[in-house]
UniProtKB/TrEMBL annotation:
UniProt keyword Nucleotide-binding present: no
PANTHER family: BCDNA.GH03377
Domain Gfo/Idh/MocA-like oxidoreductase N-terminal: 5-125
Protein name, UniProt field: Predicted dehydrogenase
């Protein structure tokens, strides 16, 4: 057997923890076609990144990502930094011949995403693979929902409702972490969680979002400066700074088949912690998913006899459901973190088989174009904005 694929992860915040769980669990639970080693984790603060390495099981830590991607013993670079460094690191890693996984959204701007997609296409010609971390595609119920739609169980998709609702910014004391600063995050709720529901809509329907009309808004315009910590768990310091991203985004999308989608991405849905929901309505049935009940789907079959129609709960935990064969007996539930293992399974399988994994950087670019179009629509009184050069959603 050839030597293991050795992984370097750049970044060590919340997504660093989730990706570490994925790299650790996937090889233990799935029969991967190649073995994997968690070689090195990289961050600017030497002490903090050494502690993360110890806690999450990385063999080494380092403080200079450029030195790490120049190493011959590294095969995969996993990027979990804020969006402002995705393009630079990903393009450098691809040029250095490393396979790349990058956390969503692909980038902060369309121009960066285009450069990344170009670099990925050039690298693919040299056998180098790249993937964007839209992990919710890999929740078994979501993958199964996509399969059912592809099998035609809802007939023609006529309407979609997609929402991602959080409430962590209702607290005006939450400090000005990088997710609230345009120069680091690109956008706010729109790019952070709206990106997930745009990708999910394109993934499950097999359609692309071709035009959007919507509004973004910032509800709390100033917040305490960040003291210690980062990401979602920082603490406040003295003084205030301006929030430069949106707190919520409401928009309508038109799919390539003409169907309309209502999108809502918000960090101000009081009481909703991490509530992603999607409902796809077709002429023969409907399917609905709710992340807060992630082991199941709701299915409505319009072709069932009159008087016996109604939404049915399908528990997506059987061995024949996507990814489930490697886990527990039916009914023994999975959680949020399992999607990160499934992401590793699909990436490592693609690398071993010499195929391009999904979601590709081109698919990440297609989401980025939608995000950009929503911002432009909002700037122009919610006018419809067409998305140029849409890239087909993958299977
Ligand atoms: C924060 O809003 C966040 O961590 C997102 O960045 C993730 O993509 C999502 O999985 C959970 O919420």
């Amino acid at each position: 057997m050839s030597r293991p694929l050795r992984v370097a992860m750049i970044g060590y915040g919340f997504m660093g923890a989730t990706h570490s769980v994925g790299w650790r669990q996937a090889p233990r639970m799935f029969d991967l076609p190649a073995s994997v080693e968690m070689a090195v984790i990289v961050g600017r603060n030497g002490d903090a990144v050494a502690e993360a390495a110890e806690k999450w099981g990385w063999a080494e830590s380092a403080t200079d990502w450029r030195e790490v991607i120049a190493r011959d013993d590294i095969d995969i670079v996993d990027i979990v930094t804020p969006g402002d460094s995705h393009a630079e690191i990903a393009i450098a890693a691809l040029e250095a011949g490393k396979h790349v996984l990058v956390e969503k959204p692909l980038a902060n701007t369309v121009a960066e995403a285009e450069a990344m997609a170009d670099a990925a296409a050039a690298a693919s010609a040299r056998g180098i693979r790249s993937m964007v971390g839209f992990t919710y595609r890999r929740v078994p119920a979501v993958t199964f929902l996509r399969d059912l739609i592809a099998d035609g169980v809802v007939g023609t998709v006529q309407q979609v409702r997609a929402a991602y609702r959080q409430d962590w910014l209702v607290d005006t004391g939450v400090p000005l972490a990088w997710r609230l600063q345009k120069e680091h995050a690109g956008s706010g709720a729109l790019g952070d969680i709206g990106a997930h529901i745009i990708d999910m809509t394109q993934f499950v329907t097999g359609q692309t979002v071709e035009a959007v009309a919507g509004t973004i808004a910032t509800i709390v315009k100033e917040r305490p400066l960040l003291g210690s910590g980062s990401g979602l768990s920082g603490t406040a310091a003295e003084g205030f700074g301006e929030v430069t991203v949106d707190d919520l985004a409401l928009f309508t999308g038109r799919l390539s088949n003409g169907a309309l989608v209502s999108f809502e991405a918000t960090r101000f849905a009081t009481g909703r912690k991490n509530a992603l929901t999607i409902e796809v309505s077709g002429d023969e049935g409907a399917l609905a998913f709710d992340l807060e009940d992630l082991n199941s789907l709701q299915f409505y079959d319009r072709t069932a006899p009159d008087g016996r129609q109604g939404f049915t709960k399908i528990l997506v935990t059987e061995a024949q459901h996507p990814y489930l064969g490697a886990w527990w007996p039916a009914g023994h539930m999975l959680g949020y973190e399992h999607g990160f293992s499934h992401q590793v399974v699909d990436l490592v399988t693609a690398i071993a088989e010499g195929t391009d994994p999904h979601p590709s950087f081109a698919e990440g670019l297609s989401v980025q174009r939608v995000l950009d179009a929503v911002e432009r629509s909002s700037e122009h009184d919610s006018a419809w904005v067409r998305i140029a050069a849409g890239v087909p959603a993958s299977v």
